[in-house]
Amino acid sequence: VTTTWHSNDDDVYRAPPIDRSILPTAPRAAREPNIDRRRLPKSPPYTAFLGNLPYDVTEESIKDFFRGLNISAVRLPREPTNPERLKGFGYAEFEDIDSLFQALSLNEESLGNRRIRVDVADQAQDKGERPFP
Predict the structure, then answer these.
(1) 46-121 sits in which CATH class?
(2) Taking the domains of the chain in order of start, what are their residue ranges?
(3) N or C: which terminal CB in the chain sees fewer CB atoms within 10 Å?
(4) Is residue 122 within 8 Å of residue 49, measured between CB atoms?
(5) Between β-strands 90-94 and 71-75, what pairing exists: parallel, antiparallel or unpaired?
(6) Which residue, 111, 128, 120, 106, is CA-closest to 57?
């Protein structure tokens, strides 16, 4: 006669094995961004488009987000009807192409409570209006 309520090891739950081939090998920020280097500008300005920004973001929080990179300027457009409110996107200009390239590795990282988009700014868009004075 046995005094335990369970004595059969075959009934013990075992988690299914983990397929380690689908796990990332390094944090996203440590991996090289999946960017076609031909899309990068050949000469300054080295500008990144920042999308899905929190409405309470500041130039300082953008600079802190890109700390360690050579950021030269930040532009955060505001709503024309309400100058207190940001539009939710902006631009960051970098001093060198390597800083821009590293900034692109932060695409989909969290800033505040949002996963922001970091992409190469459309150079054609900057022809008529220079994003930085």
Answers:
(1) alpha beta
(2) 46-121
(3) N
(4) yes
(5) antiparallel
(6) 111
Contact between 121 and 91 under an 8 Å Cβ cutoff? The reply is yes
Q: Residue 82's beta-bridge partner residues? A: none
Buried b (16+ CB within 10 A) or exposed e, 89-98: ebbbbbeeee
10 Å Cβ neighbour count for 109?
A: 15
Please state, in angstroms and rounded to a whole number, the distance separating the CA atoms of residues 16 and 27: 24
Counted residue by residue, the chain has a size of: 133
Q: Name, in order, each residue with C-beta under 8 angstroms of 132's C-beta and a sequence gap of 6 or more.
A: 45, 72, 73, 75, 91, 93
The per-residue pLDDT for 3 is 58
**Residue 23 confidence (pLDDT):** 58
Beta pairing, strands 114-115 & 110-111: antiparallel
With residues binned 3-state (H G I as helix, E B as strand, rest as coil), the percentages for the chain, rounded to 5, are 25, 20, 55
Question: What confidence score (pLDDT) does residue 64 get?
Answer: 95
